[in-house]
Amino acid sequence: MPRDYDGFACIFGVRDFDATWRQVAVNRGLPPDTSPEVREVHAAWGPSAFAETWPTWPEARAIDWTEPAIPRTTHITRYHRTPDGTLRLIHHHTDCPRYGWH
Question: CB under 8 Å to 58, separation ≥6 — which residues?
Answer without folding.
Answer: none
